[in-house]
Design a protein that fits this description.
Blueprint: E1 4-8, H1 17-30, E2 35-39, H2 45-49, H3 61-67, H4 71-74, E3 76-77, E4 84-87, H5 96-100, H6 109-118, E5 125-129, H7 136-144, E6 147-153, H8 162-175, E7 181-188, H9 195-208, H10 221-225, H11 233-236, H12 241-255
Parallel strand pairs: 1-5, 1-6, 2-4, 2-5, 6-7
Antiparallel strand pairs: 3-4
Helix pairs in contact: 1-12, 6-7
Length: 262
């Protein structure tokens, strides 16, 4: 079985990257898919939202990248959703950018670990939550992935900096990973009450076309509350508009035939 490996990337912070990674994982799992979430952000917010221990000393993505630990030894089960596996991120990961500089084949560390793990794992999706930067952690994610999902917030300057990300994806595709495509754009923090959200959504759709998932994710208090309880919004408030939106977006992502953004 072929697993879809998707990196959620945007070097801008606060665009809903981690929120989308964990809630898409929960929705895909609810729809019967087996999902692995790899937390590559030193803040470890995806680990927190999925209820997984990521204190210093816990084996996770840092040990995989720096020490060559097998992914099998770092994986935890999400307590609320056992069909989700998680590779946690500890604060140690903050030093990985510097430590990777002198490492042999530094861009391929995650790719090799994922490939080895998938040889013996029955998974439908691997979602990689990237940090808000275009450093070596994100580069490892882009080399390991087949697809990039870019969350874009429906606010001012939504498209600012995206050119740099798309250029990075092109460079990775040309030199390190020819399979990589930007397969999906997810609109986040959408507020139907404001004209601005609608205008930004129109602009993003005009720019990226069919790659934009039809369902936008609304701005919602429940989304920010859920991680403090070690949950996704789908378990914290399953009937909320935010939960329903992530279910729809996950279905659209699952049905998407990746073609890539030019």
């Amino acid at each position: 079985m072929t697993s879809r490996i998707i990196a959620l990337a945007n070097q801008k912070g606060g665009v809903g990257k981690t929120t989308s990674a964990v809630n898409l994982a929960a929705a895909l799992s609810e729809q019967g898919h087996r999902v692995l979430v790899i937390d590559l952000d030193p803040q470890g917010n995806a680990s927190t939202a999925l209820g997984v221990d990521h204190r210093v000393g816990v084996a996770g993505s840092y040990e995989i990248l720096i020490d060559g630990l097998s992914m099998h030894e770092a994986i935890e089960k999400c307590p609320e959703i056992p069909t989700i596996e998680v590779v946690p991120a500890t604060i140690d990961l903050a030093g990985a950018e510097i430590e990777l500089v002198s490492t042999v084949a530094r861009e391929y560390r995650l790719a090799r670990a994922v490939e080895t793990y998938l040889d013996n794992a029955d998974l439908d999706f691997v979602l990689i939550d990237c940090p808000p930067s275009l450093g070596l952690l994100t580069l490892n994610a882009l080399v390991a992935a087949q697809e990039v999902l870019i969350p874009i917030q429906c606010e001012y300057y939504a498209l600012e900096g995206l050119g740099q990300l798309l250029k990075t994806v092109e460079l990775v595709r040309a030199h390190l990973n020819p399979k990589l495509t930007v397969s999906a754009i997810l609109l986040t923090m959408f507020d139907s009450r404001t004209r601005l959200s609608g205008q930004v959504a129109e602009e993003v759709r005009a720019h990226f076309g069919a790659a934009v998932l039809p369902t936008p994710i609304p701005r919602a208090v429940r989304l920010s509350e859920a991680p403090s309880y070690g949950q996704t919004v789908l378990t914290y408030d399953p009937n909320s508009v935010a939960a329903q939106s992530y279910r729809s977006a996950a279905q659209e992502l699952a049905e998407l035939a990746p073609k890539g953004v030019a």
